[in-house]
Specification:
Layout: H1 2-34, H2 40-45, H3 51-61, H4 67-79, H5 93-128, H6 133-147, H7 150-164, H8 189-196, H9 199-236, H10 239-246, H11 251-288, H12 294-303, H13 307-335, H14 337-342
Helix pairs in contact: 1-13, 5-6, 5-9, 5-11, 6-9, 7-9, 7-11, 8-9, 9-11, 10-11, 11-12, 11-13, 12-13
GO cellular component, one term: plasma membrane
GO molecular function: dipeptide transmembrane transporter activity
InterPro entries: BPD_transp_1_N (IPR045621), MetI-like (IPR000515), MetI-like_sf (IPR035906)
């Protein structure tokens, strides 16, 4: 029981330490959105509106107040769970983010899982077999993944598998128009289809998910495989691995129990960094494949200088980063208990 309470205390302390970061991001985002070109009041009033109508809309939106008062009003609404109204859609920002976030997370987490399952074994094989065809393949994939932008990879995959071969469905969102989405439980179409037992819908959702998921997975595979290979090479050359081999332990036990477990620490850190990169790359992939996620929503909000929508997007991303960093801390303590004891 004392151990559990100590862990909970550390988690609560970590959350408190993250609050200044979130507040700082909120302040910077608030100031930057006010520097965007364009007038949201003029956009909301319409093209035929006169100066008086635009000024009335500006007063209604609170844009005529000084910046400090606008910020205080925004924080007060935020505490009440009100992120404002999205000018681009006319809907509350909270409902827009809640409806689009599962689509982005399904794509992002699926790509991370696929790249992790491929990159870690590939990096381990490359480290245990240096200068072989496996090592050269790993280096090639790493170079290609880093060099090729996601929009180019997505367009190339679409051209080959949809246009030339006809294997992939039309890149028109999360689900083909011939199928009705299952009852929403989690917001993830694949999981909701499994819960509802609608296997045809599951197949259609996976078919739509395949190309954008592979596009992101190729992008995220490169840094994970490179870090796994480098960490394994360093660990395999360490003294404790040589001692374990000299003690007569089997090669598999030395590789898995001693080398891989210690090499996973920097890999987990890289995974957290890659997650933040993927959210940025998600925007391009969502536009290429018409994926209705928060990335495309943020781009549309930037075009029309939609302050509330942009601020809500950045705030949601900041909360995701904080949650992910907290999760990485917990995983660290599971992989290496010394991390938790030193903290």
């Amino acid at each position: 029981m004392p151990i559990i309470l100590d862990k909970l205390r550390k988690v609560a302390l970590r959350l408190l330490q993250a609050l200044p970061t979130v507040f700082g991001i909120l302040v910077v985002c608030f100031l930057l959105t006010r520097a965007l070109p364009g007038d949201p009041a003029a956009y909301f009033a319409g093209q035929m509106a006169d100066a008086e109508s635009i000024e009335e809309v500006r007063r209604t939106l609170g844009l005529d107040k000084p910046l400090p008062m606008q910020f205080v009003t925004y924080v007060g609404d935020l505490i009440q769970g009100d992120l404002g109204m999205a000018i681009s859609t006319g809907q509350p920002v909270m409902s827009e983010l809640a409806s689009r976030l599962p689509a982005s997370l399904e794509l992002t987490l699926g790509a991370l899982l696929l790249s992790f399952l491929i990159a870690v074994p590939l990096g381990v094989l490359a480290a245990t077999r240096p200068n072989t065809w496996v090592d050269h393949t790993c280096r090639f994939l790493v170079t290609a993944g880093v060099s090729l932008p996601t929009f180019f990879t997505g367009l190339a995959l679409m051209y080959v598998f949809y246009y030339l071969l006809g294997w992939a469905p039309a890149p028109m969102g999360r689900l083909d128009m011939m199928y009705l989405p299952p009852e929403q439980v989690t917001g993830f179409l694949t999981i909701d289809a499994i819960i509802a037992g609608e296997w045809e819908v599951l197949g259609a959702a996976l078919a739509q998910l395949a190309l954008p998921l592979i596009t992101l997975a190729l992008f995220t595979l490169a840094p994970i495989a490179r870090m796994t290979r480098a960490a394994m090479l360093q660990t395999l050359g360490s003294d404790f691995v040589r001692t374990a081999r000299a003690a007569g332990l089997s090669g598999r036990r030395v590789l898995v129990t001693y080398a891989l477990r210690n090499a996973l620490l920097p890999v987990v850190t890289t995974l957290g960094m890659v997650f933040s990169f993927v959210l940025g790359a998600n925007v391009l992939v969502e536009k290429v494949f018409a994926w209705p996620g928060i990335g495309s929503f943020a781009v549309e909000a930037l075009v029309v200088s939609d302050y509330a929508a942009v601020q809500g997007f950045v705030l949601s991303m900041a909360l995701l980063f904080v949650t992910l960093n907290l999760l990485i801390d917990v995983i660290y303590t599971l992989i290496d208990p010394r991390v938790g004891e030193e903290a």
